[in-house]
Structure formats: C-alpha cells, structure tokens
Amino acid sequence: MIPKLKIENITLIFGRDREKALNMLHEGASKAEILAETGCTVGVKEASFDIQPGEFFVIMGLSGSGKSSLLRCLNRLIEPTSGNIFLNDTNITTLNDKELQQIRRKEISMVFQQFGLLPHRTVMENVAFGLELQGVPVAERNEKAAKVIELVGLKGYEQQLPSGLSGGMQQRVGLARALANDPEVLLMDEAFSALDPLIRTQMQDELMDLQEKMHKTIVFITHDLDEAIRLGDRIAIMKDGEVIQVGTPEEILTTPATEYVSSFVEKVDRKAVITASSLMDTKPVTAIFRKDGPEGSLRKMRSTGLNILPAVTIDKHFLGFVYLHEVLEVKRRGDKTIEAVIHREVPVAYPDTTVEQMLPFIAETDKPVAVVHPETNKLLGLISQTALIIETTGSQTL
Amino acid sequence: MIKIGKYIEHFINWLTLHFGPFFKSVKHIVEAMVNAVQWVLGIMPWYVLILLLAIFAWRRAGWSAGVFTLLGLGLIYGMGYWPQTMETLALILVSACIALLIGIPFGIWAARNNMVGKILRPILDFMQTMPAFVYLIPAVLFFGLGKVPGVFATIIFAMPPAVRLTTLGIQQVPKDIVEATRSFGATSTQLLLKVELPLAMPTILAGVNQTIMMALSMVVIAAMIAAGGLGEIVLKGITQLKIGVGFEGGIAVVILAIILDRITQSFGKKRMKKTSN
Ligand SMILES: Nc1ncnc2c1ncn2[C@@H]1O[C@H](COP(=O)(O)OP(=O)(O)OP(=O)(O)O)[C@@H](O)[C@H]1O
Ligand SMILES: [Mg+2]
C-alpha cells in the first residue's frame, strides 16, 4: 500500500541566510548554534514519516516545536527549505502555482485554531467558500454545503453570521468548510485548542464519529498529549523542530524513544491507553483439555510453580481456569479428565481492552485475566494479577 | 547653495514643453467632467434637489441628518449662494472621484507589495505635508487658470488618505483569514475580491470620507486660481475685507462639509453592521 502522504526529509528554515543554515544543519549543528551564527530559526529539521490512507495522524509537541510549520509545509502555505512531500504519487514540492491551487481545492483542506472564518459571510456562504473558489455554480455548492452543515450538526444555522455563534459552533463551520470540498486529506492545526474543555471533548467525540464514516486521512496537531492519545491512530512527537518518535499511542507510552518522550508521557493517565495486548504474556502455559488429564495438568503446575492454569482446547479455544486443589481432588478420585473442574464463568479481556476496563477484574477475582480473540475465542495471552496491579498503581517499571 | 528650486523649475518647464498636448487633452476631459456634473446638478429646480438630498441623507444617516440637510441647504439658497455651492460640489465630486480612482488601486498595490509600500510612503507624506498653496504653481503652469488646475491641486492634496487607508484596511485583514483563504486554493485575485476588499471596506470608506473632506478644505485655495464656487465668496470676503460675505461663504462650506461627512460616514457604518445578503 502506498502511503497517502509521504514526508521525506523536510527541513524548514526561517531567515535570510538559509543556505548557510542548511549547511550547518547537515554538519550537525544545533538549533541554538544556527540561530547564533546565522540568525536563522530552524522551524523543522529533517522530518520523515509516512501517513497511511484513512489514518488519524497526530503531531504533538510543545509550543514552538515546529508543528504548525511542518503542517503548513504539507499544503505549502509555507515553502519547505528542502525535502519532498508526496501526496499519493504526486510530489507536492515541485508543483507550480496552478497545480498547487488544484491540490488545495480538491485534495487537501485545512481547519484552523482561530477558525479563520469570513465574518462578512453567513455560515452557508462560509461552508460553500471552497466550492465557490472552484467556480461551482451557486445552486450546486449550496446543496453540497447544506449536506455538510447537517453532517456537523449545524442545521438551522445556515443564515447566521459566524460572530453570532459560540466557539464550538464556529469550529464546526470551519470543519464543514473543509469537508465541503470532499478532500482526501484534512489538516487540523490545534483545531480544538481554542475551545473550553467540555466542548473540546465533545468535538473530539464528534470528529471520531465523523472519521468512522468518512475515512479521511487526518493530520491533527495538538500540544495536549491526552488529546493526541485519544484521537490518534499514530502520534509523531516533535521537539525543537525534530520528529523524535512516531508510533501508536501505546508504543509511545510503553516504549518512549527518549528521556524527553518519557518525561512527557509520565503525566498521562496510562490506564485509559495501555491495553491488554501489551500487558499479556503471549506464551502462557496451558492445560490442554483432553490431551492433558489431571496428571499432565499437575506436571505443568509443578514445573511452572503456578496453582492456576488456563484450560484450552487443542486448537487453543479458551475454556476457563483449573485450580491446583481441585485438580488434585479429581486425580485422587481417579478421573481421567479435568472437565469437571474447569471454571467456565470467568471474565475475559480482548486485546484492545484497556487497563481501566479491566479494573473490576482485580476486585472480583484472584485469577489471572485471559485475553482472547473477540470472535474466535482463542486464547491469545494471559495477564497475571501482579502485572495488572502494578500497572494500575502507576509504576513505570514494566 | 543647493538650488533644488531650480531643478524643479527646469523639470516643470520640461514637462510643459514636451507634454503640452497631453495636458491640453487632460484639461478638456476634466473640464467636460466638471461641466457634466454641474449640468446634472442643475437639471432640476433647486427645491427638488434639496428635497432629494435631504431624503437621501435621512435614509442613509438618520432623520437628524435629513433635517440638517433640508435646513442647511435652504439657508444656503436663502443667502443667495446656490449656484456657487453647486459649482463647488461639482468640483469636489470630480476631484474626489479621480483621487479615489487613482488612490485606491495604489493603496491595494502598496498593501500587496512591500517595496511599493515603502516607496509610496514618503511620497504620500510629501504630498500631504507640503503646503497646499505650492501645488497651485505647477497646476497653473500645466493647465492655466480655471477649474481644471483647481481639480488638479485638489486631487494631489486629497489623495493620500485614500491610498493610506486602503493599504491599512487590507493589511488589517486578520492573517488567519488570509491564510485560510489561500489554503482553499484561492488565486490572488480571488483573495483580493472575495476577502481582502470586503473586509477592508469600512477602512477604505473611512478613506473615502477623508478624501472628500480634504477636497472640501481645498475650496478656498483653489479659488485663488479662479476655480470659482464658494471659495471665491470667501476669498472676496478676505481681499475686500467684507467680514459678512466671508462668513456667509464660510458657513456655506461648513454646511456642505457636514452633509457630505454624514452621508459618506454612513456607508462605512452600515457596512460594519450589515448582516447577510
Ligand atoms: N514566520 C516565521 N519567521 C520566523 N520564525 C518563525 C516563523 N514562524 C515560526 N517561526 C519559528 O519556528 C519555530 C516553530 O514554530 P511553530 O509555529 O511551527 O511552532 P508550533 O509547534 O506550532 O507552536 P505553537 O504550539 O505555539 O503553535 C518557532 O521557534 C517559531 O518561533
Ligand atoms: Mg502552532
């Protein structure tokens, strides 16, 4: 699969003496050294990553880390100093003005932190603005605009001016305007940062719902890690113009690439992010029903030192748990099978079940948590109570 | 001694020598414009015109402006200065229109091109701070005596605010709106027509208002080169020490100024309050 967007070695330098700054950068000089020597600011430094079709990609970093600059390189609102950007197969960096206009009109739309709405136009006229620039006739563009207005929940506000709307509503207009062109790629620069927290969460939810229907490729910028984790399929973390890690939210939390990232992620509520799949032991010892009788099960318990084993069928379907004392019991009775002592009524987790969702399991049972495939019910792994408790108490040692 | 005056003199002489026919045709055109406007103003009886202007002022700027127009213009007629007032009005309208037609495009150009803006700024300062009398000399050299040199001097004096406020208005358009417009693939013409000019309009209209006011302030000065109108009355008051006549002419100018000010200001205000179309 070719990526929707391919960012290849993008460097952006602000200032006059860019040549010199670029050379210094290649020789490994730091942002501060370059600023002192040439007076140039390094906005983005050699950023490279791919964004897949339909992906919700979040770029996150502190203020001044170069997020907005990098995002604006993608539709060339700012010209990158060097490097290439590909949209599908098209090299955006080499397009002429006309071609670039076409890309901006049809393929890439943008949503802004301060909304950027036209105050002298109604909601309808704002939403239809992109189509108007393309020369779409009034009737047709109003029809399309009406559809997106409904999609973002602004039906009934068509004839209002933006100044009469709340911040959240105004950003819906911004979003509708971007969607009206039916672009493949949505660029969102801190789109929700200007909204108050409640509205913000609501907008996040709605954006995720929309994305479920639309499958756009979204590049979303934020300086808020919680927002990044909530929304992003993958997150790129920037510092001083550099992309220092790209990964899924869970990868970023569990295996931070640098000190900086780990100091960043420390404050995050991991329980909502870490899922069963990253906590589980993927090769648990199991009692295989019909193959292992009481004898075999006991041997496995002795060799592992465990007093509880998950019971599975030959093809790994999870059945339940068996306990040491009960297996001993059936063995003493002379049964040939452990069928009678399998505890089948146990809670299970799926790979994407979060630690938060598994919290009740700690209280309810002293058993490990079985992680099964949501459809086939095959046992994928096992989370020990110890691992679960350590994770929920917030230790970083795992 | 540095004789800048000499050089300017030479330059003006050179201009009149080589562009004589050009100045002549400009003179004819401007003269025709002033006469046409004056003819239109004279087409209907004075009371009809006063009534129309009063209704217009009332619709645009409210009832007080309407009443003021009615009484003010009535007073002017009563004082016997109606023909001169119409002459002055025609002169101002033509001068202001030409000043705006030149000034607004330059203002747009300066807003979009830093270099142009930098070159234009000192020229505008010069035009505005140079004592207005000084413009009379080249005006007379180019166009002789009469209305046309009056229009010329008035244009030069009244144009700077139109340029400046147009530039200011466009530069004041919020950067994020301009950026958003560009991000949707607007050409620079689309950006200008659909976003920058509409958003700059209140400021540009303030420039229009100032240009008209500045043009009006040139009335007396222009009368010194036989441009006629109310300026001539005031001038007569000064030169012949007729205090009464001077004041009457002055009052007529003030009345005209207030009416024009109220009407042109109303356009800027209505714009800002305008809802949708
Ligand atoms: N037009 C410009 N000229 C010079 N330097 C600039 C310009 N725009 C941005 N910069 C610098 O580039 C760096 C990156 O800025 P950028 O706006 O991309 O950061 P950001 O991550 O978006 O920050 P924020 O969260 O504050 O929006 C900063 O050091 C900034 O000062
Ligand atoms: Mg930013």
TrEMBL record, chain A:
Q: Name one GO cellular component term.
A: membrane
Tell me which CDD domains the record gives: ABC_Pro_Gly_Betaine (cd03294)
One of the Pfam families matching this protein, by short name:
CBS
Q: What is the lineage of its organism?
A: Bacteria, Pseudomonadati, Bacteroidota, Chitinophagia, Chitinophagales
Per UniProt, the keywords (alphabetical) are: Amino-acid transport, ATP-binding, Nucleotide-binding, Transport
As for family, the record states: Belongs to the ABC transporter superfamily.
- In the record, what terms sit under GO molecular function? ATP binding; ATP hydrolysis activity
GO annotation (BP), single: response to osmotic stress
What superkingdom does the record give?
Bacteria
Stretches assigned to the ABC transporter domain: 5-265
Q: What is this protein called?
A: Glycine betaine/proline transport system ATP-binding protein
Species assigned in the record = Chitinophaga dinghuensis
Automatic annotation (TrEMBL), chain B:
Q: Could you tell me where this protein is found in the cell?
A: Cell membrane
Q: Which organism is it from?
A: Chitinophaga dinghuensis
Q: Which GO terms describe its molecular function?
A: amine transmembrane transporter activity; carnitine transmembrane transporter activity
Cross-referenced Gene3D superfamilies, in alphabetical order? MetI-like
Q: Where are the transmembrane segments?
A: 36-58, 65-83, 89-111, 132-159, 215-235, 241-264
Its BP terms in the Gene Ontology are: choline transport; glycine betaine transport
Offer one Pfam family short name for this entry.
Answer: BPD_transp_1
Say which family it is in.
Belongs to the binding-protein-dependent transport system permease family.
| Name of protein | Glycine betaine/proline transport system permease protein
Q: What is its main location?
A: membrane
